[in-house]
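Example: Glycosyltransferase.
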Amino acid sequence: MPAASKFTTITALLIISLFLFLYNSFGLRGLAATSGLGGRPSAAVPKKLWYKLGPKGLSDNSREWTNSCIQNNKDYVANFMTDESADAYVRERYGALRPDLVEIYLGISVPILKADMFRYLVLYAEGGVYCDLDVSCDAPIDQWIPQQYKDDASVVVGWEFDVGWGDRFVRQFTTWTIMAKPGSPHIWAVVEDILRGLRETMRAKDVPVEKLTREIVGDIVDATGPRRFTRSTLKSVGETFNTTVDGITELWEPKLIGDVLILPGYAFAASANKYGEGVAVPSPLVTHHYAGTWKNEHGGEMS
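Written out as structure tokens, the predicted fold is:
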């Protein structure tokens, strides 16, 4: 074989080896896996529980609430992420192909903005169930999805304010509990939408990401929280499945739209819905205890 051909063959093998190394080392399923372009959800929701700790760790109450989820789901692996381990995770998992995302994430100084972003990032990469520390579990996670939807549902969400709030009320999904298969394009759509919003704010206010404050960002619910999550998810479902998303309010039973399963308000937010006296309401799946640790001037606990 001519020397030039040998060199070309060796070079090609080295390139292939490098690609396979990056593929396996970073858990990347091609460029699409971290760009959101064509990533495909896995066959099942992984048995993983995700929690994000603040600098103060677990309080007595939050330990009791999280334990209720862990004890009710013994075959699930519970992961408690600190500020440091979450930063390291995002840097390692997304740094190779989305350094722009990592730069913004690591630069954010408002705790709740970062916590919101982390839940979407870890659910996209790993899948499982994300819960806030003030959520307790009333039913085993494996019972959350009705049998007829188990194969098709790649994201499971629940209404916060739904029954009894009228037609003009802007509804939103809870973000204190979200279930997802890894690789959901809808979860990635939320991430990209948040990044666009933060960049627009930074340009409009002429500040770097490190200088963003609660006052500059505005309503957290709109910036990174439930309303942003709801808008982005429903828009993604409509575009992905080329469908008009309607008939999803005032729910009394789960409804599948595309591959997103929407649970009635009683599932994740029973106390926020107005069912009226004497109405038989199914049992909740989780209870949110509204500890509200992020609702201070800093947007969360500070170290």
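The chain has one domain: 36-288.
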